[in-house]
């Protein structure tokens, strides 16, 4: 069950919104949503994350849902917000998992606040935009990643239009986004009835008319996280048939991270995580069996 949405006030008066799921006294796991996504996402996902004894803490990333954006801040500043939230909750140590566009945010935590983390996991994490990390990337996405840093207002407008469609014309929005799906993801989208159960999360994601996602699009070409400085083991999962975040991105990250346990999943795409996040969490919990919160 989700708790009521809570608001944590950061030192600079920005708001950080979050929700909690599962056991309030359980082992804390910080779940970082992707793009689209919000604090509602993991609660909408049917059943999979709710292992006994887990306390899932799910914040809205900056510019998403009810979390303030913070002009001039980047993904490299996110760990400061996380540490402030952990302090407010009196949590000394937390496991972290980030999916897709949430991947860089999880990696930023592994780099900047390793003393507060137990285990770290990422699924299909968005990485730097380089020739050897973008092979297989959907051309329309590659173009947006290249253009975004030079034309942020254009990207912001594009995302605002998508937000308008997601809020008021969800059927048209769905038709537009499925064009970028791989065949295996399109099959999962229909089979799991994703459009229906995820709709409230999509509306919350676009509450601020795409401000957060407009920044996300700039991350690959302006990558600020020194991967070689991340000493914590990072568990990585990647579908071999993913086109939203292609396997080349994860292979690049696996090579650059000093301690990476990568698993490439055959015949699977970006939506593999919807049915397997419970297994992912089991792996992260086992990786740090002496965890104390």
Q: From the 3D structure, determine the CATH topology.
A: Rossmann fold
Task: Give the N-to-C terminal Cα separation.
Answer: 21 Å
For the record, the count of structural domains works out to: 1
**Helix content range:** 25-40%
The coarse silhouette is globular
Over the alpha carbons, how many angstroms does the gyration radius reach?
Answer: 17 Å
What fraction of the residues are assigned to beta strands by DSSP? 15-25%
CATH superfamily: Alpha/Beta hydrolase fold, catalytic domain
Looking at the overall shape, the CATH architecture is: 3-Layer(aba) Sandwich
Helical segment count:
12
Structural class designation: alpha/beta
Q: Write down the CATH class.
A: Alpha Beta
Average residue-wise pLDDT: 93
**Biggest sheet, strands in spatial order?**
1-2-4-3-5-6-7-8
Q: What is the tally of beta strands? A: 8
Order of helices and strands: EEEHEHEHEHHHHHHHEHEH
Q: Biggest sheet: strands, sense, closure?
A: 8 strands, mixed
Query: Uncertain runs with pLDDT below 50, 5 residues or more?
Result: none
In short:
By secondary structure, the chain is of the alpha/beta class. The protein is built from 12 helices and 8 strands.
């Amino acid at each position: 069950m989700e708790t009521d949405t809570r608001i944590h006030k950061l030192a600079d008066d920005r708001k950080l919104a979050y929700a909690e799921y599962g056991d309030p006294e359980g082992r804390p796991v910080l779940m970082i949503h992707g793009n689209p996504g919000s604090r509602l996402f993991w609660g909408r996902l049917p059943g999979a994350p709710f292992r006994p004894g887990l306390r899932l803490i799910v914040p809205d990333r900056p510019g998403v849902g009810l979390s303030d954006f913070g002009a001039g801040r980047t993904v490299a500043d996110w760990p400061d917000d996380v540490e402030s939230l952990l302090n407010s909750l009196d949590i000394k140590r937390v496991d972290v998992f980030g999916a897709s566009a949430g991947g860089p945010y999880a990696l930023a935590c592994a780099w900047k606040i390793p003393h507060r983390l137990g285990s770290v996991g990422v699924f299909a994490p968005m990485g730097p935009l380089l020739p050897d990390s973008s092979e297989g990337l959907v051309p329309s996405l590659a173009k947006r990643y290249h253009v975004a840093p030079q034309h942020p207002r254009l990207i912001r407008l594009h995302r605002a239009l998508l937000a308008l469609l997601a809020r008021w014309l969800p059927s048209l929005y769905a038709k537009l986004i499925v064009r970028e799906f791989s065949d295996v993801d399109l099959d999962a989208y229909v089979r799991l009835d994703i459009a229906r159960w995820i709709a409230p999360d999509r509306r919350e994601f676009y509450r601020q008319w795409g401000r957060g996602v407009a920044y996300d699009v700039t991350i690959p070409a302006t990558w600020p996280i020194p991967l070689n400085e991340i000493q914590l083991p990072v568990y990585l999962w990647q579908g071999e048939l993913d086109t939203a975040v292609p396997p080349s991105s994860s292979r690049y990250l696996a090579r650059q991270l000093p301690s990476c346990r990568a698993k490439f999943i055959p015949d699977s795409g970006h939506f593999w995580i919807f049915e397997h996040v419970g297994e992912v969490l089991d792996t992260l919990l086992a990786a740090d069996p002496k965890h104390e919160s």
